[in-house]
Amino acid sequence: MNMPQLPAPLPADGQPLNLSRRRFLGASLGALVLGVLLPGKVVRAAQSAASEIKPGTRIPAFLEIRPDGTALLRSPFVEGGQGIYTAFAQIVGEELDIAPERFSVECAPPGADYLLVNGARFTGGSFSVRSSYEVMRRLGACARHMLLQAATARLDVPPGSLTTQPGIVVHEASGRTLGYGELAALAAGLPPPEQVPLRERKDFRWIGKSVPRLDARDKSTGKVTYNIDLEVDGMLLAAVQHAPRMGGEPGAIANEAQVKAMPGVHSIHRLPGAVAVVAQRWWQARRAVESLKVSWKEAAPGTVHAMPADFSSAGMRAALAAAPGPGIAAEEIGDAAKALEQASRVIEATYDAPYLAHGQLEPPSALARWNADGTLELWLPNQAPELFQQAAAKVAGIAPDKVILHSSTLGGFFGRHFLYGTANPFPQAIQLAKDIGRPVKLIWSREEEFLRDALRPMGLARFRAGIDESGLPQALYAEAVGESPTERWFGRQPNKANDAAVEGIAKKPYAIPHRRVAQVYLEHPPTIGFWRSVGHSMNDFFYESFFDEVADAGQQDPYELRLRLLADKPRHKALLQAVAELSGGWRRGPFTTGDGSQRARGVAMASPFGSEVATIAEVSLEGGSVQVHDVWVAFDPGSIVNPAIVEAQVKSAVALGLSSTLLEEVVYENGMPRARNFGAYATLPLGRMPRVHVRIVESGAPMGGVGEPGLPGVPPAVINAVAALTGQRVRSLPLSRTRFAGA
């Protein structure tokens, strides 16, 4: 995921605030509860419940030290498999001196205290840990200082004579110890320190170590509760059938009476763009709603984002290709147009990538309950609690503070759980619960999920490059055509290229003296959304594949040419050399392996979300299909918290990147997606998953993202390897659409 205008580095002088006496968020009696705030006027404003807190003025992190010595951390970010709860336990625990396994971590409720990302709250953009690293450290250090103060008073010893070991305060001179739980109540009454020292990196006990994930056992044993598992008293279940094309509305229902008489059915409802059945059990609701014979009315003229009946993905690809340039410049260095005119040779190519579904395992769901006091209680997976709270309030016609939102652990992330309007089920659940006066849990079937998913947009890029007599690139001219999710959901600036639309093409590190990168805007009829690594997921494929075309045209080895053009970029050059070393030494191929098969390798680089990545893939052809045997990834996120989680995230990103390279695409015909379930939407099977080798390189640069950067280098590395092996340059994904000569 990507957020526009990400905040600047966090201030180093964030000040703690003791919230224990406010009984914030129902803290346990005798617990020490802390929050971290910015100094000055923000502190004064926060002390008044009536004060309006501007988004982004308070840095959220609330810590509870319980009487039993355990700790509860309320995370401002949502856990969806990326491992942030474990990372936060390591970070806070490092400074607090509590072992990570002594923590429990939960998602904090909506509130101004948690607006950490650019005045908003959003789990995405591989930003959670890097945006809150220093804040979390200061929080733990502040709590430890207050516990030491409490122990000084309790033991009547001089300040500075105490130290800590995990979970206890130690007076070494007398051998006396006090557990954190024994001191929590006393520490809760103390003022937090103005300044607090942080540990030196050389003294880290848990940060930088492969601490086991806190949720691993519960996930492995089925104890984690996801949204679709939830139950409340008096709850009924619901299923929906959406209009086949976006914008359509339900008309007459031919068999309403017969369906209402089906076993377990409570009621039938007409909703905007859909019909629903509420029943005692979900399978009863689904069977009933799919039995409804609905006459769907076409979208009224002027309906926003109504799907045209003649829309197709093939037609959209043609529209992207035909969209005229030159577009709005995102990067201009030198004079690319003039350099192209003077080039010894000009290379041109157009690349494209398809719409993609999210395809997370947990289908969308929402549980809604109207309470007797007029509040609305919602349980739903989401990546932005405050945004969902505000949207739910608008749907319900009540104030946001009347919406009680529970953010469930996500059953898959990938950018699916953002606020995508009609791609979210919670408005339907709110209306159903209101109509019947009982709690309703709505679950979309897989078919309805595929019909209403917010897709990774189709993308297309046009390239021209000029090389000199020695085969070195002197000019690059690129146009990225389409619309990015940030434009759709955060608004478009007509005279400015959108960063997400050109990321992975603009600001590449290679020393090409003349270059122009532009965006040609063209709106998509389907609902589009964020997808893992956002614009990088396709743009790095476009650029890094075309880079190899330029190298071939100049009779340059693509690995050596990258090294040469990175001579003044030591971080990137070192990473490229690291991945070559990891793979046993660069060799492009084709070459014959010990089993007699013909193989080749491809290389690619990417700079996503503040991290740097170099990737090599080795491929062969088997039965006419591309088989990827090994993928090597050298990954530099600057610094890390948990190497095991980093490696797991890189490997999972490789899997998704490979799936999109080989197989995945959403095909539209007649305004509707062809695939309505996994049977028709191919994803990477286990037997085609390669060996993945990861080397983490900590360069000491500012901390970058982890969850998404492993993906963008995979498609171009594979495509470049296929080109080296077969001599065929594939410019359109997925590879399953390409027939190889002689295969």
From TrEMBL:
One Pfam match: MoCoBD_1
N-terminal signal peptide: none
Gene3D superfamilies reported in the protein's UniProt record: Aldehyde oxidase/xanthine dehydrogenase, a/b hammerhead, Aldehyde oxidase/xanthine dehydrogenase, molybdopterin binding domain
Record-given protein name: Molybdopterin cofactor-binding domain-containing protein
Domain Aldehyde oxidase/xanthine dehydrogenase a/b hammerhead: 221-300
UniProt-listed SUPFAM superfamilies: CO dehydrogenase molybdoprotein N-domain-like (SSF54665), Molybdenum cofactor-binding domain (SSF56003)
Domain of life, source organism: Bacteria
